[in-house]
Amino acid sequence: MALLHWSRSGVPVEDRAVVALLQRASAAIEPDPMYRRRLRGRVLNAHVARREGLVRARPQRHMGALGRSVLVASLTLAVSVSAVGAVSQDALPGDALYPVKRQLEAIRLQIATGAARDDLLAQALAERLSEFERLAAAGEWQLVDAAGEEVAVAEAAVLGDGAPATPYQRDRAQRHVARLEALLKTAPPARQHRVEEALQVARERASVTGRPADPPSAHPTPPLSANRPSQAGAPPTQASEPPGRPDQPGGDHPAQP
Fold it and tell me: Domain range spanning residue 148?
């Protein structure tokens, strides 16, 4: 607008085409005088009608306590999942954000069903083994006990679910076996039992091929032929004899001559 006013002031310029272009553009965007008068009349009429009470003003809507609570809860959940949740994914036992990480995992498990729940439980166990390995590799042996307890809890959840490990999960567990075997060689004697426990969990996970079969019953049902006589040449029972007909030998009534 400053350039437009400057072009209209009569100051000589080098490029007259630019001035002409600006003048045409300003004339195109300026509202029509009739539109200005109509718009001004509408605004004044509406103001006078509200002032004189001829038109009821619309009440302003205010958010209630329940709406504010829902809004705050939604924003809090969104921030925790997006920002804090993303940061807590690398948290280890002993970190301030580790409880947040475990809480988010629990929420996902609560809303998951079927195969999705099986995958989340297997993923949680693999994550607990990774946390154990990271602490052991960093020499944080004072936190290895807590990490080992987390591994045991995750293993119990997987065993309670009963789903067999997939080939990808077995391969991942095999990689945990290799890393834990290397850590066992450098672990202090006071913590070797913890590494061995985690190593046993990884080995069992890597060797699982399917759901175990049901154990055989202690008292199996005998075959149907067990109740029949097994001696050779034993006479047939009454139930095993053919019914016969009256005109055949062995029937209920012998044939009349």
Answer: 114-210
